[in-house]
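Thread: "does anyone have the structure for this chain?"

Original post by V.I.:
We have the sequence but no experimental structure in hand. Need at least a predicted one for the grant figures.
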Amino acid sequence: MLLISEWFVVRSSKLEGEERRRKVAMVSDAIHPYHRGGKELRYFELTQRLASRFDIDVYTMHWWDGPPVREEDDVTFHAISPLVPLYVNERRSLSQAFRFGFACLRMLRYEFDVLEADHIPFMQVLVLRLVTLLKRKRFVVTWHEVWGREYWRRYLGIAGYAAWIIESLAMRLPDHIIAASPQTAERLRASLGGRRRISVAPNGIDLAAVEAVSPDSGPTDLVVVGRLMAHKRVDMLLESVAMLHAEGLPVTCRVVGNGPEQLELHDRARQLGIADSVDFRHDVSEQKDIYGLLKAARACVFPSAREGFGIAVLEALACGVPVITTSAPDNLAQHLVARSVRGIVCDPSAEALASAVRDVLAGNRVGPGSPDAWLNEYSWEAMTDLVAEALRV
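Reply from O.Q.:
Generated one for you, tokens below.
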């Protein structure tokens, strides 16, 4: 009986070990550091930490030079499609969405226990549902934001109705959805009802890494960080800066990031007569440099009209910098800013932004200081625990 008992203990331990080393396939068309954004940074930070608990394989486009398979630390990267431009005329490429989506059929040849995918740009969700059904594996999708019918109509016109139908279908396909913010979870539940399994695991922040960085040597009044796209509304911030200059307040502004709007923004700064006061930084590639540039500013402005979470807001707050954002309905970053003693949420207009900036620079709001204590809730370690739990269910 002792031997039988020992056999069960050993067998149980082996099964637990196998559970901990479950093979996880993670699918996303864009990855850090080849493409920069909140989604890409999230995957980078999480995969590094999840690799201590699971066997992690990332499937993406062929972003790197050399063979289609490469290993970095404990993560294996697989190129399942050629590199196709993500954007055409400042909008997500439909051709890229279809090509990467169909390339996901190649997942049929790979072995995994659970497949996790990024929901953007939807087409791969449909294909990967078929793959996981055929392979009888769990399908988990991380959802960053819900657009809905009206936003799709504004974005694509009549074609937006078809996109909305695809979005509505895609959100009904996963076995489990990980929402990147509580507000995205609420929007998903409003669309799906209470029958779908949805958990929340927001983006995170490495507070120790933030604390270790000193301010950049070049100070500025305002800073904005993010991918330069139309919905980020950096143009509205430039208009606010021009208004303040016209009032006799010659504020300086630093724009950190790159993207399809960068040439237009340079032109806009010249048209407004503020080019000498705007420092465009399209060359920043290291997180520590972003933290240094944030700390060198008197305030961070985040004028985005649409945001599923707003990792740049989290970074600015962690740097102890006041943050100004707008109450645009689809800007979910406003919920983070509203929690901070140094946060200001104003109307989504150039006039309101200028007024908020004026208040901050005049010292009418709490200035830079220690990070808010609640930011500890957003450590990458805590977020990794939440994602790992969803992958194990």
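V.I.: this helps a lot. The first helix runs from residue 2 to 20.
O.Q.: and The chain has two domains: 22-200, 207-375.
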